[in-house]
Design goal:
This protein is mainly α. The chain is 49% helix and 10% strand. The protein is built from 15 helices and eight strands. It has a three-stranded antiparallel β-sheet, covered by helices on one side. Strands 6-7-8 form a three-stranded antiparallel β-sheet. A two-stranded antiparallel ribbon has the order 4-5. A hairpin with a 6-residue loop joins strand 7 and strand 8. It starts with a strand and ends with a helix.
């Protein structure tokens, strides 16, 4: 049975501080709102009788006109129920009452619009992640559906398909979090109703990722490795060493370093992902590698990106990711040659630095600060040399000395 209720929608506030008065259509526990064209402040709304308080002539006239609208809608509902006694879709009822069929914006269409919006805002990394998640989900279920289609059952079915096809729990979580973000955006854009939000019941599961690290003796073997300068793996070897020597710098940040990041014997940079500032002492081994790659005509310190690629901002995330994959390929080959158990990647060197610090007895707080996982290095000036930085410098020197000893 179709129910109709007049209500003041206090979830939405207009610029003048009033809230829209709507007719709420409910069928099978699902609802849709139909605008009345009127609004009022909460103090003028009688929630007990679901009507405007006739405190003034203007409010009394508004209440009468809203009442007349409701009578008309109730008559239309009776006609609709006679024609379609077995109707189950509340959206169909709303379209009949409004007299117009609304254009249905599919999840995929809105997702693509959000991705384009990010690109226009120069958030190219986020845009790439959104696009990747959309394509990943579409391998298992179509997104060419209205938001009202996505409910608890739809989400659990998608999760089951992904798990059955070998996706790890954390990979599924990445897809689901992106879908949740898209759904929130659709609600904020009034493309779907908050009452239909499926993530109230569906909870995104996450698993504990196994740390991918190599031991201090294995790091020593890697640093002692002699790569042929004429071979592709030579650059990968140097990039792996630099990531470790620069306290586990992310590969994307390493690729984007320029001479502007060199200040008084330190590497000063903002991490691309979190925008936190890092100040890292440039140790002799790291300086030697950077000096070897020095080129006056290149914008970056390392030849990971060409000048053209560095300036093509919209393509940077894609190019950096491709270079990361190439670097990982050659790092993996070096690891196999050294007979290491863990497949070498740039990620392994980032977290092997933290693991080595832990093995040498440094505190979790210092390691967390070094990686920027806690409050990070809240340095207000690139030249600030405070107590915390000195302690982290000492930790990095101790770990790097241990790994490179005998070199």
């Amino acid at each position: 049975m179709i129910h109709l209720k007049t209500t003041c929608d206090n979830r939405r506030t207009k610029k003048d501080g009033t809230h829209p008065i709507v007719f709420r259509i409910t069928l099978n526990s699902k609802s849709r709102d139909l605008a009345s064209g009127y609004s009022c402040i909460l103090a003028d709304w009688d929630s007990k009788n679901n009507s405007v308080k006739p405190k003034t002539d203007e409010l009394e006239l508004m209440a009468q006109r809203i009442h007349d609208q409701k009578i008309t809608l109730l008559e239309k509902i009776r006609d609709f129920e006679l024609k379609k006694p077995h109707v189950t879709n509340v959206q169909e009822v709303k379209e009949f009452l409004s007299g117009t069929k609304e254009k249905i914006v599919t999840v995929k269409l809105f997702w693509e619009q959000e991705t384009q919006r990010m690109i226009k805002s120069n958030r190219h990394g986020n845009a790439r992640n959104y696009k990747s998640a959309m394509l990943g989900i579409e391998k298992y279920q179509t997104l060419k559906v209205p938001f009202s289609t996505i409910d608890y059952g739809w989400l659990t079915k998608l999760e089951t398909k992904m798990i059955q096809n070998g996706l790890k729990t954390n990979s599924v979580a990445v897809y689901m979090r992106t879908l949740r973000s898209i759904f929130n955006g659709a609600i904020n854009s009034n493309l779907t109703d908050a009452n239909n939000y499926p993530f109230k019941r569906y909870k995104i599961k996450t698993g504990s990722a196994k740390p991918r690290v190599i031991s201090i003796p294995e790091l020593h073997k890697f640093f002692m490795f002699q790569a042929n300068k004429d071979h592709y793996r030579y650059n990968a070897w140097n990039y792996g060493r630099l990531i470790f020597l620069l306290r586990g710098i992310n590969f994307a940040d390493l690729a984007l370093l320029t001479s502007d990041n060199l200040k008084n014997g330190r590497i000063i940079y903002h991490r691309r992902k979190t925008h936190k500032m890092y100040s890292v002492e440039l140790l002799p081994d790291a300086k030697q590698i950077l000096d070897e790659y020095h080129c006056e005509n290149r914008k970056t310190l390392l030849p990971i990106l060409t000048n053209e690629e560095f300036e093509a901002i919209s393509q940077l995330p894609y190019r950096i990711e491709q270079q990361r994959k190439t670097t990982n390929k050659w790092l993996n080959k070096i690891g196999k040659q050294l007979e290491l158990d863990e497949a070498l990647t740039t990620y392994v060197f980032r977290y092997s630095h933290a693991n080595a610090c832990k093995k040498l007895g440094f505190s979790k707080d210092m390691i967390s600060e070094s990686l920027g996982h806690g409050y990070g290095l809240a340095v207000s000036s690139a030249y600030l040399e405070n107590y915390d930085i000195e302690l982290i410098d000492e930790m990095n020197r101790a770990v790097c000395d241990e790994v490179t000893k005998g070199k």
